[in-house]
Design goal:
Distance between the termini: 25 Å
Number of helices: 5
Number of strands: 3
Shape: elongated
Strand order of the largest sheet: 1-2-3
Order of helices and strands: HEHEHHEH
Largest sheet: 3 strands, parallel
Radius of gyration: 15 Å
Strand content: 5-15%
Helix content: 40-55%
């Protein structure tokens, strides 16, 4: 898996917003919220740069359960409007398949 630096992600969001007029960005990597500290820095840097966009992300439920309440507050304040999740199987037989 390839990970981009905070600066790289902020630059890409800036280009999408300023050059192409994007007003909502979707982070489709379900591991995007896995590193909570990096995610917080990304939101803070985008805000510091004066980029005003909304965000959507996808994540696993177990990752969301570990996020601190302060992170949820920051997400709301900085424009995260949706987080998509996928249902897990309740069947051990399906998990073993």
């Amino acid at each position: 898996m390839r990970h981009h630096s905070i600066e790289h992600i902020v630059h890409d969001v800036s280009v999408l917003h300023h050059k192409y007029g994007a007003d909502c960005i979707t982070f489709a990597d379900e591991g995007f919220l896995l590193n909570e500290e990096k995610f917080i820095h990304i939101l803070e840097e985008i805000k510091r740069e004066g980029i005003s966009v909304k965000y959507r992300a996808s994540s696993r439920i177990d990752i969301l359960q570990r996020l601190k309440p302060e992170t949820w507050d920051l997400m709301k304040k900085n424009g995260v409007i949706a987080i998509g999740t996928a249902p897990e199987s309740g069947s051990q037989r399906m998990l073993d398949y």
